[in-house]
Amino acid sequence: MASFAPLCPQENSLLLERFPSFGLKSTRRVSHVGLDFWFQGHHMVPSALMRSVKPKRFVSTETQTQTGSLQFDTYMAKMAKQVHETLDEAVPLRHPLKIHEAMRYSLLAGGKRVRPILCIASCELVGGDEAAARPIACAIEMIHTMSLIHDDLPCMDDDDFRRGKLTCHKAFGEETAVLAGDALLSLAFEHVATETTSVSSDRVVRAIAILASAVGSDGLAGGQTVDIASEGKIIDLSELEYIHLHKTTLLLEASVVCGVIMGGGHAVDVDRLRKYARYIGLLFQVVDDILDVTKSSEELGKTAGKDLESDKATYPKLMGIEKAKEFANALVAKAHEELSYYNSTKAAPLYQFANYIAQRQN
Looking at the chain, which terminus has fewer C-beta neighbours within 10 angstroms, N or C? Predict the structure, then answer.
């Protein structure tokens, strides 16, 4: 049981061990858990990682041969379609009509379905069947959609567009949007409990505990709280790391770890793939920050430049665009490293996921 307990962010954090906090307040050389950091201009850069990363390359292609013949676009489209169909069935239109319309409006608005597909791919990597992971994979997408609905509210990020459409509160009103998000969160756990078959109750409970932890005050909600409190303030990279570890990374991590548990993985699999997930989770946010300042609203399908407008701390703001790109490249390499213990064909989707997240344009 202890092997699958939710990981406390302060314990054995791969971000702290391998990408230590980057404070901006000292001009001296510092050593932290064996990695030395030096000022480069006004920014501190993880030199132990950056030495092996070629400048101005956003994505490493050196490990792409490990992904075999997988046609990743085809794989993603197929898996996203399956997830979409399951979500469609899980939230039928019924009374009260307005809240279910709002839930379906946001849940079925498209999106890349990264989290549920990661969950299923992780399950299959350790020898599990896709059907074992599908209920919790879809539950994770419900929770992710809830977070987007709430994140877009005027009291949060105040966004008008999401995935190229009006945000939920713009389409249905703020009251209904809040309730739709709440209902999706509740339905997510109900869906796991009632739809999961052929998996031991012990493993289902472990997965539910990990997912709940990733969403609560020690996870997504806590990260959002600190994010809101930091607007307009000067924070360093260690504080920014805390925000994104909790607000973004832990739900991606839960997606992978829950898939491993549902697939019958062992403690060593949980440990290795948790590390992989932490790298791609941080990578996801670094890329998101870069896109926010380099792409248009039309390209992103949401309002561009929101972070700059609200004076939020971001990786490009604190590191500079080029250093942020180098950091993303280093994260891809470290994520690939954690997959080297597995059969390359079975691990192909996860190898490609790291590249996909780094290369995404919206």
Answer: N
CATH code assigned at 207: 1.10.600.10
Q: Evaluate whether residue 39 is within a structural domain.
A: no
For 338, the token pair is 């954690």
User: What b/e string do you get for 52-64 counting C-beta neighbours within 10 Å, with b at 16 or more?
Assistant: ebeeeeebbeebe
Domain presence at residue 94: yes
Neighbours of 154 (CB within 10 A): 13
User: How many structural domains comprise the chain?
Assistant: 1
Rounded CA-CA distance 12/131 in Å is 31
In-domain check, residue 278 = yes
Does any domain span residue 217?
yes
Question: Read out DSSP for 338-358?
Answer: HHTTS-TTTTHHHHHHHHHHH
CA–CA separation, 134 and 195 (whole Å)? 9
Mark out the alpha helices in 165-249 (DSSP H runs). Answer: 168-172, 174-195, 201-215, 220-230, 237-244
How far apart, in whole angstroms, are the C-alpha atoms of residue 156 and residue 248?
A: 15
Residue numbers of the domain that contains 155: 66-359
- CA gap 299, 170 in Å, rounded: 21
Per-residue pLDDT of the chain (362 residues; tens, 9 = 90+): 333 333 343 333 433 343 333 332 322 222 222 222 222 333 333 434 443 443 333 444 444 444 445 789 999 999 999 999 999 999 999 999 999 999 999 999 988 899 999 999 999 999 999 999 999 999 999 999 999 999 999 999 889 999 889 999 999 999 999 999 999 999 999 999 999 999 999 999 999 999 999 999 999 999 999 988 888 888 888 888 899 899 989 999 999 999 999 999 999 999 999 999 999 999 998 998 898 888 666 655 656 556 555 567 788 888 888 999 999 999 999 999 999 999 999 999 999 999 999 888 76
Q: Which of 273, 281, 141 is nearest to 211 (CA)?
A: 141
SS3 107: helix
